[in-house]
Amino acid sequence: MGLRICIGGATGWTGSALVNGVRAAADLELAGAVARKAAGQEIGGVKVAASVADALSATNADVYIDYTHPSAVKANVLTALDMGVAVVVGTSGMSAGDYGEISAKADKQGLGVVASGNFSLTACLMTRFSLLAAEQVPDYEILDYAKSTKPDVPSGTAQELAERLGRIQPSVPGVPIDKIIGPKEARGADVGGGRVHSIRLPSYVLAVETIFAMNGERLQIRHEAGSSAEPYVGGTLLAARRVVALKGLVRGLDNLLFGTLPAEAKKA
Ligand SMILES: NC(=O)c1ccc[n+]([C@@H]2O[C@H](COP(=O)([O-])OP(=O)(O)OC[C@H]3O[C@@H](n4cnc5c(N)ncnc54)[C@H](O)[C@@H]3O)[C@@H](O)[C@H]2O)c1
Ligand SMILES: O=C(O)C1=N[C@H](C(=O)O)CCC1
């Protein structure tokens, strides 16, 4: 019997790609699925439940994976932990404070949670390269592009990156924000110490770019997502395989792949 996976948001763009990924993997088994509108229907050989609590009480899942909605993810994750199930979080929109609560609950339950603003390998490399650059170049800002209908801001990718860059090296504006002449919002938002400018326009899926600058030179590190959800499947399933052996919260796929950066370990 393989590792038993329950997927929240199983009918969605990412969730449906994951259902296929789980079914194609010899070491994984689709144990449950959650999607409110499709409740009662069948997906990938399992009956879709209306809530995480219903799905997990009807199965003996080892891991719950959430790709639902920013308004639903926190309650879903806390429910799964209360029910004794390890969690992988793909859904965006949770604050640092929300993650603090999840971390405390995971510790209390002795369970693992892996969350990553972006589970694609190349986005995770963009994050890691940016963290390395911030150790050397103190001046940077983050551009966060997504489709016009994305409800959460910044994206999960940009938020996690901003918080992590901010811990290594807070982004310090050349003119302090309270001394700016004009609308302060035009200078973006301080997200955990990293400065983020979010752009929401049709035709973007998701792109995140960090601009590092020194006198006379610039480094731009950019990730651009395509229109398929396929890139998120491998990283999410890697996290599902690893999370059952963990206790507590790990944020960032790069930490699973490459270990914790010394600069981040020092500041934790
Ligand atoms: N971390 C990553 O790598 C990554 C990758 C892709 C998407 N995402 C994030 O995942 C989330 C989902 O994205 P998507 O494009 O797959 O969305 P989607 O709208 O295509 O699918 C969402 C799914 O969740 C269900 N759902 C919606 N609201 C719900 C609620 N309140 N309770 C329970 N289920 C609900 C829907 O029925 C659907 O099945 C977003 O936050 C997105 O930013 C993250
Ligand atoms: O399509 C989305 O929405 C995505 N959201 C993630 C985010 O918020 O960073 C990343 C992948 C696509």
TrEMBL record:
Entry keyword set: Amino-acid biosynthesis, Diaminopimelate biosynthesis, Lysine biosynthesis, NAD, NADP, Oxidoreductase
Catalytic function, reaction form: (S)-2,3,4,5-tetrahydrodipicolinate + NADP(+) + H2O = (2S,4S)-4-hydroxy-2,3,4,5-tetrahydrodipicolinate + NADPH + H(+); (S)-2,3,4,5-tetrahydrodipicolinate + NAD(+) + H2O = (2S,4S)-4-hydroxy-2,3,4,5-tetrahydrodipicolinate + NADH + H(+)
UniProt pathway annotation: Amino-acid biosynthesis; L-lysine biosynthesis via DAP pathway; (S)-tetrahydrodipicolinate from L-aspartate: step 4/4
Enzyme Commission number(s) of this protein: 1.17.1.8
Gene Ontology molecular function: 4-hydroxy-tetrahydrodipicolinate reductase
Dihydrodipicolinate reductase N-terminal domain residues: 4-119
Dihydrodipicolinate reductase C-terminal domain location: 125-257
Record InterPro entries: DapB_C, DapB_N, DHDPR_bac, NAD(P)-bd_dom_sf
Family: Belongs to the DapB family.
Protein name per UniProt: 4-hydroxy-tetrahydrodipicolinate reductase
Source organism: Dongia sedimenti
